[in-house]
Design goal:
Order of helices and strands: EHHEHEHEHEHEEEHHEEHEEHEH
Helix content: 25-40%
Strand content: 5-15%
Structural class: alpha/beta
Largest sheet: 7 strands, mixed
Strand order of the largest sheet: 2-8-7-6-5-3-4
Distance between the termini: 27 Å
Length: 382
Amino acid sequence: MAIYLDNAATSFPKPEGVYKAVDEALREGAGSPGRGGHRGGISAARIVLEAREALAHLFGISDSSRLVFTHSATESLNLALLGLLKPGDHVITTAMEHNSMARPLHLASLQGVEVTWVQAGPDGFVPPRDIFAAIRPNTGLIAVTHCSNVTGTIQDVAAIGAAAQKAGIPLLVDAAQSAGSIPIDVSSMHIDMLAAPGHKGLMGPPGTGFLYIAEGIELKPLLVGGTGTSSASLYQPETLPERFESGTQNTPAIAGLLAGVEFVGSIGVDTIARHEAALVGQLIAGLLPIAGLKVYGPDAGRPRGSVVSFTMDGMDPSKVGFLLDNDHEIAVRTGLHCAPNAHKSIGTYPAGTIRVSPGWFNTESEIAAFVEAIERIARRKR
């Protein structure tokens, strides 16, 4: 692929160190973390611990044992939601959620949990006051996405977190589109649970993710089994992180995630955010003058992640995506992006949008080439 602009789905390319770390762990690791006192097992355990501590440092987590590894943000959200909520509880969420949040909540609602879906404006923003207004005596959780995977809209998590803490309600944040590219500090933002994948802004391999669980939050495990600890007992360990990490961990992938997090840390999240914001600004400035094209999301000057969605009059988004891929070797995402309610909020349901998501490794010349390709497609339509 000549130009890759689908980093909201998964980042590509990865830093060279990620490829090397995965290869080295596969070739030289020869051990399962926590499952042996030999040097291979100790080496694997060290990789996992270093990755856990690197992530904790990146997100302002004081106790790295409260950060548990999963295979995805989806698993993390399932653990947080289905592990916490019980019949009779009330949870507040938003219309901008990805199905990784929406579907577990729907399942919970079928099991007796009350769910309030707070609506977003046409720019994808959910006013914090509307979330506060939905609080009830039995509200047991507020669950929100940090950055929309459809519009790039950044929700005011800090304000939501401060109000949630004052009301004594835990806050769960889906950071799938923000971890690694938008600064996050769980303490100052009052985040009680943070879910993120490793393969997007953190630059790691697919099949990695984590959930941070603040002290005082008690969850039921989704999975029980061997943890390498308390082996004489049939009961799942109570201690973290072992309570939520049954089974052999994917050490090579975690090694790659560690390398990705170290890469992000070496550059700085603020630097990555500025680079991506500059590309997004260039992208929007190039798209807006094209006749028949509409860009969705926050107005100029409002916070936006590295996601831009647009439509073209008279053209199905899937056709535009095909032409970009087939004629111009440019990769983007089209359709509903697993977030149908977000598209209903911005008026693009059911066809969806063309989504462009630049990343750290994209350049101004690539954005210029993309805009030129869209101009050609628009002329071809006429």
